[in-house]
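Let's practice the habit of predicting before peeking. Look at the sequence and jot down your guess about where helices and strands might fall. Then scroll down.
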Amino acid sequence: MKKIFFALLLITSSIAVQAQELKWETDLKKAADISIKTKKPLLLFFTGSDWCGWCIRLQNEVLKTPDFAKWAKENVVLVELDFPRRTPQLPEIQQQNNELQQVFGVRGYPTIWFAHPNKKDGKINLDKLGSTGYVAGGPSKWLEGANQILANKK
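Done guessing? Here is the structure:
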């Protein structure tokens, strides 16, 4: 019985560690460079991390799962664009996030946009691929929609 318990504990902890290994960029310029280099689109996650119930639900049901982690590593460069109420944020990140909120016309949270960046004259331009938000049904349902957005815009 102890062996089974320890085996389950090991499997559970390795899954949790795998989901936590994802790197969410907060600097669009850095993320765009990675995206251009790897030829993967950006996943721009507009969130209110410390107050938005639907954002927290999306995180727990999809974005922090092993299925999402595996998919994200293969398909996208992750960018978190946070609009917290209690968590301090650098002024340049606040300004960047506000500008991107305007560019993408984000009116509610969570909103996820997929985009291809390109640089012209040192300036980043973003080609919008499509958007989504919270989708009931867990990671498989959410990933199905994300894959449709990416497949339709390649």
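How did you do? The radius of gyration is 17 Å.
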